[in-house]
Automatic annotation (TrEMBL):
NCBIfam families cross-referenced by the UniProt entry: PRK07454.1 (NF005672)
Family: Belongs to the short-chain dehydrogenases/reductases (SDR) family.
Full protein name: Short-chain dehydrogenase
Name of one Pfam family that matches: adh_short
PROSITE patterns from the UniProt entry: ADH_SHORT
GO cellular component terms given for this protein: membrane
Keywords: Oxidoreductase
Single Gene Ontology MF annotation: oxidoreductase activity, acting on the CH-OH group of donors, NAD or NADP as acceptor
InterPro entries the UniProt entry points to: NAD(P)-bd_dom_sf, Sc_DH/Rdtase_CS, SDR_fam
Residue intervals passing through the bilayer: none
Length: 241
């Protein structure tokens, strides 16, 4: 790959699940990857595997829940890793509880991670993309950003907000040569289902696997510059949400 055709991507939530699968898919496609997550140890494993594809892979430990620091940290990461061509906002958390039973503290925690941190990640790299008149921002939303599910109220609110952010950003940045994609998978078999904020009993064997979602993200990233996938819904073929 020539220096002029090299691409660099930052991927949040890259230590596991969709983020890890996306990092490896990008690396195998020849895209240099900056990997962001809280766990330096887990990131190191992904970096080592991605580097086997012959690309530059680098770990950036960051806690996106610390929203007041995210923009400045993203600016520093973007400056260190090089001109950022692709930003994949994948980090987030699941949450199940009826609205009436949702504490304000939980509301703020979920909104901060699933929505506000994405807003700050975007603000951290967007000026650089505008200066270059080029860039692709891919937000991993969810089918929960398109339809509401009982018991998932707060999660749906955060994902509907992320969808609105994606659509607004796409409309604003189109004139600057920046593409924005909202990828909306149905249920994906990741560690989200094992977290203490999610109480759901679904058949995980009927879900999408992270690698399938990652391939969809890669397609959105590799489209010719004159085309954009602005919204894509990817559902399990076995009927699971």
């Amino acid at each position: 790959m020539s220096a002029s055709s090299e691409r660099r991507a930052l991927i949040t939530g890259a230590s596991s699940g969709i983020g890890k699968a996306t990092a490896l898919a990008f690396a195998r496609a020849g895209i240099h990857v900056g990997l962001l997550s809280r766990s330096q140890e887990k990131l190191a494993v992904v970096v080592e595997e991605a580097a086997k594809a012959g690309v530059n892979a680098k770990a950036y430990p960051i806690d996106l829940a610390e929203t007041d620091q995210v923009k400045a940290k993203m600016q520093a990461i973007a400056a260190d890793f090089g001109p950022i061509d692709i930003l994949v906002n994948n980090a987030g958390m699941g949450y199940t509880k009826n609205i009436i039973d949702t504490p304000l503290s939980d509301w703020q925690k979920v909104i901060d991670l699933n929505l506000t941190s994405v807003f700050q990640c975007i603000q951290g790299v967007l000026p650089q993309m505008r200066d270059r008149q080029n860039g692709t921002i891919i937000n991993v939303v969810s089918i929960a950003g398109q339809q509401a599910f009982p018991g998932w109220g707060l999660y749906c609110v955060s994902k509907f907000g992320l969808m609105a952010l994606s659509k607004s950003l796409a409309a604003e940045e189109r004139a600057y040569g920046i593409r924005v994609s909202a990828i909306c998978p149905g249920s994906v078999n990741t560690q989200l289902w094992d977290t203490d904020t999610v109480d759901a009993d679904f058949d995980r064997s009927a879900m999408l696997d992270p690698e399938t979602v990652a391939q969809t993200i890669l397609v959105a990233a590799l489209l010719p510059q004159q085309a954009a996938i602005e919204e894509l819904t990817l559902m399990p073929s076995r009927g699971a949400f």
